[in-house]
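Support reply, case 0932

Customer input (verbatim):
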Amino acid sequence: MRLTTDNGQILCETAIVYGRSEYIGIHALASVMNSLMAAGAFDIGVKVRITYPVRSDRTRIYAMEKVVKKECRRRGAELLKSQIFENPLVVVPSVVIDGIAALNGESIENGSGVCKKNVGSEQERLAGFTDKEIVLSKWVGMDGMLQAVRERTDMLKERFTPAFIRQILSYEKELFAGKELEIARDMGVLHLCQITQGGIFAALWDISKELRVGLNLDIRRFSILQETVEVCEYYGLNPYQLASTGSFLFVTEDGEALKEALLKERIMAAVIGRTTSGQDKIIRNEDDVRYIDRPAPDEIWKLHVSEK
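Our regenerated output:
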């Protein structure tokens, strides 16, 4: 959301994540900070609200708050307010992060704002997004994989080695975007979308709807970690419908150039397809063709539903 004032624009973003792990708030914080920075914001302030069920382990609940506070200091975000509530109507703790920041200059178009680089009528502006390349940064389902591992570490230890679990947790630093947003802005990316709840399928649906374009994608080009594949197989989760905070989709004129620029900075990137005229949202897997459906609930929720 954007609020225009006499002194410029104020941006607001909100993210909510559910779970019992003391680290769960990091995922919401990363989602908010990434979205604000992608819009060109600076001097980010955040408010934290933690809601927990009756008879929860309060030590862990307060540990959630402590972890978020520590990460705010590390990432340079100002913690404006922190609140913790017991709620008899909920069954899984939740962490809500509200972020607010001032806009710093020109922004890339994303789901919450207007691209200042495109002028003319709305029809002319939208026409400029047809027949463009789509670049994926980092990996699909990474965020959801990390949440699953933090939620079920004891169970996973029965299946995977400690070294394998440590390798998975090493990806937590990838939840926060940084250099890729600078590169995208410098290279004139037309539109971006962070992959949050609902996974890459939901993000692609949103891009198609917002830009009024079709999609032609090759699923074999979607970068995915082997660790994500194995964790998802173990829990029966679809990695393409798992949140991937820290991963972005970029719509750009020259996808190969953007990909190479990201790879040069050791940021995983792949050109996964193009925008098209019309409304068809096609995903190809060699000769197999399917269409993207309306966004479904994030797959990570299956872990919590199974606990009821």
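We compared this against your earlier run and they match. Two observations from our side: The two ends are 35 Å apart (CA to CA). The first helix runs from residue 24 to 38. Please reopen the case if you see a mismatch on your end.
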